[in-house]
Amino acid sequence: MTKPSPVPKAPDGDTTAAPEDLRLALRAATLYYLDGLTQAQVADRLGVSRATAGRLVARARTHGLVRIEVTTPPHLRDDLHADIEHALEKRFGLTEAVVVGVRVDDRGPVDNSASFAVLGRAAASLLTRRLRPADTLGFTWGPETIAVAQAIPSGVATCKTIVQLDGSVTTSTYQTGTEYVLGRCAEQLQAQPVRLPTPLYADATTVASMRTDSVISRTLELGSRADVMMFGVGAVSSSTTLFEGSFLDTAMLDTLDELGAVGEIGGRFFREDGTPAHVELESRTMSTPLSEIAACPSTILVAGGASKHRAAHGALCGGYATMLVCDIACAEWLLDRSPTHPHDSGFDPTEMR
Amino acid sequence: MTKPSPVPKAPDGDTTAAPEDLRLALRAATLYYLDGLTQAQVADRLGVSRATAGRLVARARTHGLVRIEVTTPPHLRDDLHADIEHALEKRFGLTEAVVVGVRVDDRGPVDNSASFAVLGRAAASLLTRRLRPADTLGFTWGPETIAVAQAIPSGVATCKTIVQLDGSVTTSTYQTGTEYVLGRCAEQLQAQPVRLPTPLYADATTVASMRTDSVISRTLELGSRADVMMFGVGAVSSSTTLFEGSFLDTAMLDTLDELGAVGEIGGRFFREDGTPAHVELESRTMSTPLSEIAACPSTILVAGGASKHRAAHGALCGGYATMLVCDIACAEWLLDRSPTHPHDSGFDPTEMR
DNA sequence: CGCACCCCTGCGCATTTGCTCATGAGATTC
DNA sequence: GAATCTCATGAGCAAATGCGCAGGGGTGCG
Q: Among the residues of A93-197, which ranges form H helices?
């Protein structure tokens, strides 16, 4: 009599219901969410059982009577970038992205040590949060990891071992800062430091023989199995650390450029899409391979400065980082890049330089 | 060095904090409230302990990062009146107010039985929700309670006893409906019915002697101690039930009018401010006194129709009802009344008629 | 009119959550 | 430079919450 239409079961996804039923749901939700009563108190207040009160609250939610929104307060809109971080995580499949408010600009003559300090603090905070006492931490040398080491607090986190992922022994006077990072992190994290006492690059035969060394092979093994890895990226440029430290010469730089390399991690270069760029150089490199980095469950990429943008993008596309710490400028640049399609290997000449 | 100002304790109500601390709080709140993760999952996702995850969520709330609002969906704005109900509760100190969407208009020639049915359903719903199996339910006779009795479902609620609060025996043929209400409610609620086998009004001496009767006194006692009472209000008018049923004559109506009476419950009249209006008539009335009604922890006033507005207002001001069921027109009228000051006894001539 | 189905309700338990205490590191003050 | 204070963290526990189950009444179909 009241229902002429054959609708025994409402297929309408529960979006509509009797208004009288929803009156109580609305009331329960108000008391629960707005007045902060417990469900038992709501039940008492409404004269229903506790279970029913819970159902009413649940119904209120399913019917859209309750709207919960998490927003960044206006007074720290400039410091927090939850939306950008979330976009980065979604875009590159990251576990966590941390975007600091500063804009690292390494092209101009300005001193970006302050910016790097901010970046370092953020990365150190992330690192100490992710580190477990039984973990092994691997790191590459470079200005980014130095900044992290400087910012790392003591007592907050602990790990078992900290291991060097790429060789740093040099014939020149160039300071890689490896000792500082290794020493400081080991101290602050109360971890046992493990060195990789080799150069970064050597002849292929030398590298092959070094890898058979019991100590070196153990270190490499330890690095490959590290629970957490932390590293920056190097650009393919004459102003990058590897060139300034005489690890690479101009000819190699040109070769890498022609191969489409956009960046490196631990001296191992990759292209725009993250694929390894110079297999021959790979065999001459003493560091954890990119494949091992990609296999690590927790890898933190610290990237600051415009010169590192392309390199960071390549690293992210290669899946070498599960976590990213970068400045806002880098984050925006990364998101401006093709939001969907990753390159299918090879490189696009129009993207060069 | 970093803090020259003497601010050991921040007296600023925790509205501001380090942005970096809030970053995690924001993240935790997002995962918890928006993504629906449990706090343990949030903790795992963020690399913190479960306790810390809980603290982060709590901090996000205290800092206003989370905003929860309970709103009436637009498609039932016309049926629900949560704001009006809340205003009524606040204004008159009610436990609960139920406002139904219909507009009972008893001045015109329209049939308002449908409106009364809606009102009755709402009141019955409220009543069955509030009733406990061990409770005694008291009621007065009248069209409102008849509507409630008609709407009461079976099996939903139970109570021990249902007792008549005001005498209904008449010498005329007027049907009060008391028997119907008593019988139907007793059946549906599986309660034991208790009659008050007396007229509503009698001589003072008669009333006094009736009150000494063991059966009658027990009924009155039972009514006074009822856990829940349900009643309508009568207006001071020639179109009201008490006059039509020949319980009152024109002279008495005028007397009551002059005394400032605006309404009655169980034949006992009160003024605009709720104070008893005719002490002499009180001694001639066989019903639960207003003071007993005011003392009852759960009293449901069912009011529909424009003619009852003033009476309902007086009843609410007298504190005779802890719960109110009325139509939207009545609710709006009640709220349009002085929102703050209650009258200090006596009556205002300008308010009459 | 009987029967089966289904929704609603209340009960008991596993999980989740908020809270308190004790511990330790950093900051402040004398 | 040392004592103390404050704050944050982790463990444990009690309260609170969600979810299963079973029972009963209403509804629709036969």
A: 113-130, 143-151, 178-188
A82, A96, A121: residue with CB nearest B26: A82
| A76 reaches B (C-beta below 8 A) | yes
pLDDT tens digits, one per residue of B271-326: 999 999 977 899 999 999 999 999 999 999 999 889 999 999 999 999 999 999 99
For residues B100 and A143, what is the distance between their CA atoms, to the nearest angstrom? 70
Token representation of residue A145: 């990891």
CB contact under 8 Å between B80 and A26, yes or no, is yes
B1-69 shares its CATH topology with B74-352? no
Under a CB-based contact definition with an 8 Å cutoff, are residues A303 and A330 in contact? yes
**What's the Å distance between residue B50 CA and nucleotide C28 C1'?**
31
Q: CB of B18 within 8 Å of any CB in chain A? A: no
Chain B CB contacts of A63 below 8 Å: 73
Secondary structure percentages of chain B, helix, strand, coil, to 5: 45, 15, 40
User: Residue B338, Cα to own-chain centre: how many angstroms?
Assistant: 19
> In this structure, are residues A112 and A120 in contact, taking their beta carbons and an 8 Å threshold?
no
Q: Which fold has domain A74-352?
A: Rossmann fold (3.40.50)
> Are residues B77 and B45 in contact, defined by beta-carbon separation less than 8 angstroms?
no
Local confidence pLDDT in tens for the 353 residues of chain A: 322 223 233 333 344 556 777 899 999 999 999 999 999 999 999 999 999 999 999 999 999 999 999 999 888 788 889 999 999 999 999 999 999 988 877 765 555 677 889 999 999 999 999 999 999 999 999 999 999 999 999 888 889 999 999 999 988 888 889 999 999 999 899 899 999 999 999 999 999 999 999 999 999 999 999 999 999 999 999 888 888 887 888 999 999 999 999 999 999 999 999 999 977 899 999 999 999 999 999 999 999 889 999 999 999 999 999 999 999 999 999 999 866 544 444 444 444 43
From chain B, pick out residues whose CB is under 8 angstroms from the CB of A22.
73, 76, 80
Q: What are phi and psi of A139, to 5 degrees?
A: -150, 155
Residue A125 in contact with partner chain B when CB distance is under 8 A: yes
Residue of A nearest to B78 (CA): A19
Overall fold of domain A1-69 = Arc Repressor Mutant, subunit A (1.10.10)
Q: What is the pTM of this model?
A: 0.84
Q: Where are the domains of chain A?
A: 1-69, 74-352
Answer yes or no: do A47 and B76 touch at CB < 8 A: no
Contact A82, B28 (CB under 8 A): no
Residue with tokens 């038992």: A40
